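CATEGORY: protein folding

GOAL: derive structure tokens
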Amino acid sequence: MGSIIDEHIFSAKDYVWICSPWISNSYAKRLSQLSNKGVSIKIITMDDERNREAISILDRSSIELLTIKLKYGTLHAKIYIMDGKYAICGSANLTESGINNNIESIILFDEIQIIRELERDFMRLWNDLKVEKKPSLLKSIITFLKKMIKI
């Protein structure tokens, strides 16, 4: 199973979109190398201490990275989309354990209609989470007023 995910991600020519709560340091390095070859990469992952070094590696690359701390629940989705030609969904995180050691289940899609649906879902999640991360105008005004009151 791991070879299927590896093969499709690291043979991508145009873009890779990944949603995985956990990403290992070695996969972060490989993704950085892939982005250095001109492949556009978007990643959604957890902002968590266990991901800290991988996030640091990804931050130093041209990868578009969205790290999230969810207020309610947790990020559990694992979605891998490559070049609009393939998509993989399942239980495997982008870690050595998730890809090579654990008993996991994945589905590889190559039907364009299904891939487009998954791309829409990914981008909806991406955009929703980006908006959630932006401070609201009200929070900005409150922060400004608190600073003014202390002066």
In short: The beta strands are 15-19, 40-46, 64-68, 79-82, 86-90, 106-109. The first strand starts at residue 15 and ends at 19.
